[in-house]
């Protein structure tokens, strides 16, 4: 077989010019049309020119050069980094058939997918995914991405591999590949994975780890006034005043771009990140950026997306505008009772520190449905203090707030504070106090009735036990009397030998039967008494568990 490879680089005897994205290559028709149906058809169309232009060729001139070498029987390496580009180029040039380039690229891709479904060589799969954006989106790249996502999800969906899958996600080599992906492509990848996945644990771990790595050396390390680690390219910083000693330096570019990436991840993917995983970056993030100008809206959105993972300290570090943004973005139905309590307690701390305005309080309370009884005392306390100031709430706002606070659920302490500040209408405080008295009276009456019913039941159980004991003891006394009488008659009236023998036998049998009956009766009565006592003890124990007996 003639070695045509030697003509490839020198260009001797070239009879066709191929222009790829504006760059020219001097090639030969024979090697090209033996491998490519595309060139076979294009050569047939040529009449006056010996040039063919390939527009928008996948991978450009670099990828076409590798494919041209393949056509000249020059050995080429098909790797995970170039297999998608080679497959796209092979499809473009219609290089089909047994042993041709399209088939060979398919073999490698299928091998990677097959191993990934078993949890093997996952870095190769992630590399394969990462290589797809380098080529213009087309049918081949879409199909490759879909197949890769299906293989990865197939592994994730196997519950027996869930822990291992999460550990794989946290591997530095795998996570580094994800981190180097274009962010928009990464978002689209996560959406596909979420749509296909039935077990979201690995996906949630991936999002959390991505955020943590993205913020590493930035917001995460800026807590408690520590200086951030900034690279040489990130020299532009701003000094932020904080309540603690020292200062925090934040890169201006980081404070906007990274926050927006985190917000987009949480809003678009809506991962279910556990509190343990979120604690690594959420609280440091909120604390670090709470003083950055223009970050309030984004921080509020992030806190809203992670609503039930936000603790009280993190909420307190947020500015009033960030808390308002949080209230506007969050779905009140997603708020747990614990989070509502934390928010109400946070408002108390803010108003005590004079860091809460009446307008801000109105915006927050209008949006958040803090209807649970545990929040009412705190809300009334905040309202009382705010309205006692010179710039307190207007009459309309006060009425609106009072309509949202159920004063019937307020405690004596909260009502007394409202009365002492003289900031809440006295008639409303009086009505609430009367309602509280009525409620307490109802509870007292109900408790008294419960006590009476319990005493009656206890007395009944005790009488039943006493009566059962008295009835169980009398048959035993009767049996002893009968037994003594039979013994005396036996010794007092001797008879003939056969009579004595029969009488003795009769008496002996009677004594045996009588004794067995007595022992059995005694055992029954004892067991019955123990059973009743056990029931009584259990009953008393249950009553002690109620609030009334505590």
Could you describe the 3D structure shown?
- Among the domains are: 207-229 and 246-425; 468-549.
- It is built from 25 helices and five strands.
- The chain has helices spanning 6-10, 29-35, 37-45, 60-71, 83-92, 101-117, 122-131, 139-156, 162-169, 172-179, 183-196, 201-215, 252-269, 275-278, 282-289, 296-305, 312-317, 320-329, 337-352, 358-367, 373-388, 395-404, 412-421, 426-492, 497-545; strands at residues 16-20, 23-27, 51-54, 237-240, 248-251.
- The strands form two sheets. The protein has a three-stranded mixed β-sheet with strand order 2-1-3. Strands 4-5 form a two-stranded antiparallel ribbon.
- Helix 18 (320-329) packs parallel to helix 20 (358-367).
- The longest helix is centred in the last third of the chain and has 67 residues, at 426-492.
- It starts with 5 loop residues before the first helix and ends in a 5-residue tail after the last helix.
**Spans where pLDDT lies below 50 across 5 or more residues:** 217-254, 475-518
- Spatial sequence of strands, sheet with the most strands: 2-1-3
Helix content: 55-70%
On the 0 to 100 scale, the average pLDDT is 78
Q: Rounded to an integer, what's the Rg over CA atoms? A: 43 Å
What is the overall number of helices? 25
Layout of helices and strands:
Blueprint: H1 6-10, E1 16-20, E2 23-27, H2 29-35, H3 37-45, E3 51-54, H4 60-71, H5 83-92, H6 101-117, H7 122-131, H8 139-156, H9 162-169, H10 172-179, H11 183-196, H12 201-215, E4 237-240, E5 248-251, H13 252-269, H14 275-278, H15 282-289, H16 296-305, H17 312-317, H18 320-329, H19 337-352, H20 358-367, H21 373-388, H22 395-404, H23 412-421, H24 426-492, H25 497-545
Parallel strand pairs: 1-3
Antiparallel strand pairs: 1-2, 4-5
Helix pairs in contact: 2-3, 4-5, 5-6, 6-7, 6-8, 7-8, 7-10, 8-11, 9-12, 11-13, 12-13, 13-16, 16-18, 18-20, 19-21, 21-23, 23-24, 24-25
